[in-house]
């Protein structure tokens, strides 16, 4: 049986997969494992915000504790970083038949800025649909982990958003669950299982989409 990387090369088309969830859910580990399984080029394992020169500068701004940034401003900055990443990296890669794995995407903006940040959900979703959703992911994997467990995994808060506390993260987790009900491409997975169990669950979802 051919590997995922071999199947991808034979098919002549790439796949765009997002791995998302609350801080400490294990998305970076799972995105790395998936990228390896798909044979994704190192520079196409992306993170949000970031991955482009502009995105990394915006990341510094958004995560710095130096600034107080209102949710509406956060939303616009995250959308700008995402648009740059889609134009500069994702769209060209998919056009060449290459696969892309990205940590965070529109679910994060919905969960953090809309649900946890008390912004109007329809307005945020409309903004994302119009400005930060083309090309769309083939699959959005949401790792569902109890925020207290996730906080214990990650340890001390490292940035402005992680420092907002457990109650905020609980609202974020609820936002992800609601997003899974709104978006047909989104799948909610139990992120509290072992690393390999989560990885295997992700591979099953990827196989389902590719079939």
Gist of the model:
This protein is an alpha/beta fold and 211 residues long. The chain is 56% helix and 11% strand.
Order of helices and strands: HEHEHHEHHEHHEH
Q: How many distinct helices?
A: 9
- Low-confidence segments: none
- Main beta sheet strand tally, sense and closure: 5 strands, parallel
Spatial order of strands in the largest sheet: 2-3-1-4-5
Helix-strand makeup class:
alpha/beta
Query: Distance between termini?
Result: 15 Å
**Count of beta strands:** 5
What does this protein look like?
The chain is of the alpha/beta class and 211 residues long. Helices cover 56% and strands 11% of the residues. The protein is built from nine helices and five strands. Strands 2-3-1-4-5 form a five-stranded parallel beta sheet, with helices on both faces. The protein starts with a helix and ends with a helix. The mean pLDDT is 94.
Describe the secondary-structure layout.
Blueprint lengths: L3 H8 L4 E6 L5 H12 L6 E3 L5 H11 L7 H25 L4 E4 L2 H10 L5 H11 L7 E6 L2 H8 L11 H17 L3 E5 L4 H16 L1
Helix pairs in contact: 2-9, 3-4, 4-5, 4-6, 5-6, 5-8
What keywords describe this structure?
single chain; 11% strand; alpha/beta; 9 helices; 211 residues; 5-stranded parallel beta sheet
């Amino acid at each position: 049986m051919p590997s995922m990387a071999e199947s991808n090369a034979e098919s002549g088309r790439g796949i765009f997969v997002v791995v998302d969830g609350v801080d400490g859910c294990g998305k970076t580990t799972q995105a790395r494992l998936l990228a390896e399984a798909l044979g994704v080029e190192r520079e196409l394992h992306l993170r949000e915000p970031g991955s482009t020169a502009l995105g990394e500068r915006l990341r510094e701004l958004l995560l710095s504790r130096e600034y107080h940034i209102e949710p509406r401003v956060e939303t616009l900055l995250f959308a700008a970083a995402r648009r740059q990443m889609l134009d500069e990296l994702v769209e060209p890669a998919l056009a060449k038949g290459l696969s892309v794995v990205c940590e965070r995407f529109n679910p994060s903006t919905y969960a953090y800025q809309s649900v946890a940040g008390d912004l109007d959900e329809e307005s945020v979703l409309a903004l994302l649909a119009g400005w930060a959703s083309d090309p769309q992911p083939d699959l959005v994997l949401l790792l569902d982990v109890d925020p207290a467990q996730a906080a214990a995994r990650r340890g001390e808060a490292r940035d402005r958003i992680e420092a907002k506390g457990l109650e905020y993260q609980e609202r974020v987790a609820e936002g992800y669950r609601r997003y899974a009900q709104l978006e047909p491409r989104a799948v909610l997975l139990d992120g509290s299982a072992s690393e390999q169990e989560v990885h295997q669950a992700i591979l099953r979802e990827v196989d389902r989409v590719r079939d």
